[in-house]
């Protein structure tokens, strides 16, 4: 685990604030948050005194929160930080679907994961310019990035890396072994590069699936939460169901959330239904498809998973109790 770099205090405070503020100000984002439906106990949260949200025993129904980070209020945050339960935060930094105003969208994917004082940037999008602009907007400095995990060697996932390093980032870079020798050579010269294997820990609670065979081969990021595994995919070229099943088999835990590109843009509705059936068989609890999933497939997942479907795009922040 790399502990040489730490998030700036401001960034830590910001990430810690997000979940709290969504609980306090939930009614403001109900329009976007499909978890906050009439059946969901979260919708009643605003009637309770603040202390109730912070009680770990009562927190059980508040395990996954989602909000644009623009709702973060640093003053409230400072007052509440001491009582905070450690959260795993996933911020979608780069996607072709919009979510938060003020952020650039573009074809590609990148997600920033934080837990305690550790962080991982999973994929870098296609454009370094967009990546760095969105990071600045979200108060993430290049020097903050401790680890970069690249899902697969396609430019819409690796294209931002060189700009990130040029801007001052000094992360450990985790690659599937099948990456080309020219790619490895380029980045070996600038950073520590590690070829992954199944289950390799990136940090506490954060690991890689290892390389899964496909065209091209690909790795997923796997986060161990109190609710089960979160699997983040880049494009899921090997098959999103195959990747999720590989994570479940390796880590021997249930799947709480699958987020990222599901690569079903050219799939028929019958093929998408087969993936949904397989997700049900595997026991996937929540889905957050984006990037290369395809509009029709996203609509099918939304219909099938109802309030366990999470709409995501550039700027979505998801917090899960560790
Ligand atoms: Zn790809
Ligand atoms: Zn892609």
How many β-strands, per DSSP?
Answer: 14
- CATH class value: Alpha Beta
Largest sheet, strands/sense/barrel: 8 strands, mixed
DSSP summary: helix tally: 10
Strand content: 15-25%
Largest sheet: spatial strand order: 1-14-2-3-4-5-6-7
Which spans have pLDDT < 50 for at least 5 consecutive residues? 1-63
The CATH topology is Metallo-beta-lactamase, Chain A
Overall mean pLDDT stands at 81
CATH superfamily: Ribonuclease Z/Hydroxyacylglutathione hydrolase-like
Radius of gyration, in angstroms, nearest whole number: 18 Å
Level of helix content?
A: 25-40%
Structure class: alpha/beta
Q: How many separate domains make up the residues?
A: 1
The CATH architecture assignment turns out to be 4-Layer Sandwich
Bound molecules: zinc ion
Please outline the helices and strands.
Elements: H1 9-24, H2 50-54, E1 64-68, H3 74-80, E2 87-94, E3 110-115, E4 118-122, H4 128-137, E5 147-149, H5 155-158, H6 161-166, E6 172-175, H7 181-188, E7 192-195, E8 201-203, E9 206-208, E10 221-225, E11 228-233, H8 240-251, E12 255-261, H9 269-282, E13 286-290, H10 295-305, E14 316-321
Parallel strand pairs: 4-5, 5-6, 6-7, 11-12, 12-13
Antiparallel strand pairs: 1-14, 2-3, 2-14, 3-4, 8-9, 9-10, 10-11
Bound molecules: zinc ion (2 copies).
């Amino acid at each position: 685990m790399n502990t040489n770099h730490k998030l700036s205090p401001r960034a830590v405070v910001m990430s810690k604030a997000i979940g709290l503020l969504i609980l306090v100000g939930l009614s403001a984002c109900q329009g976007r948050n499909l978890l906050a439906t009439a059946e969901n106990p979260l919708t009643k949260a605003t009637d309770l005194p603040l202390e109730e949200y912070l009680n770990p025993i009562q927190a059980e129904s508040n395990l996954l929160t989602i909000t644009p980070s623009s709702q973060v209020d640093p003053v409230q945050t400072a007052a509440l930080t001491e009582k905070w339960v450690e959260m795993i935060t996933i911020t979608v930094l780069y996607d072709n679907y919009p979510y938060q105003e003020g952020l650039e969208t573009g074809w590609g994917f990148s997600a920033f994961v934080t837990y305690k004082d550790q962080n991982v940037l999973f994929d870098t999008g296609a454009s370094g310019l967009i990546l760095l602009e969105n990071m600045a907007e979200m108060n993430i400095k290049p020097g903050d990035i401790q680890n970069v995990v690249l899902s697969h060697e396609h430019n819409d996932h690796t294209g931002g890396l060189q700009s990130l390093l040029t801007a001052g980032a000094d992360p450990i870079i985790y690659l599937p072994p099948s990456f080309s020798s020219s790619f490895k050579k380029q980045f070996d010269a600038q950073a520590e590069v590690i070829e992954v294997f199944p289950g390799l820990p990136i940090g506490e609670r954060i690991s890689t699936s290892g390389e899964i065979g496909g065209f091209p081969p690909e790795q997923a990021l796997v986060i161990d939460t109190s609710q089960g595994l979160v699997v983040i995919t880049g494009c899921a070229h090997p098959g999103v169901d195959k990747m999720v099943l590989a994570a479940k088999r390796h880590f021997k835990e249930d799947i709480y959330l699958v987020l990222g590109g599901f690569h079903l843009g050219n799939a028929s509705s019958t093929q998408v239904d087969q993936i949904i059936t397989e997700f049900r068989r595997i026991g996937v609890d929540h889905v957050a498809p984006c990037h290369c999933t395809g509009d029709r497939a996203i609509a099918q997942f939304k219909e099938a998973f109802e309030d366990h479907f999470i709409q995501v795009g550039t700027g979505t922040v998801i917090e899960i109790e560790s």
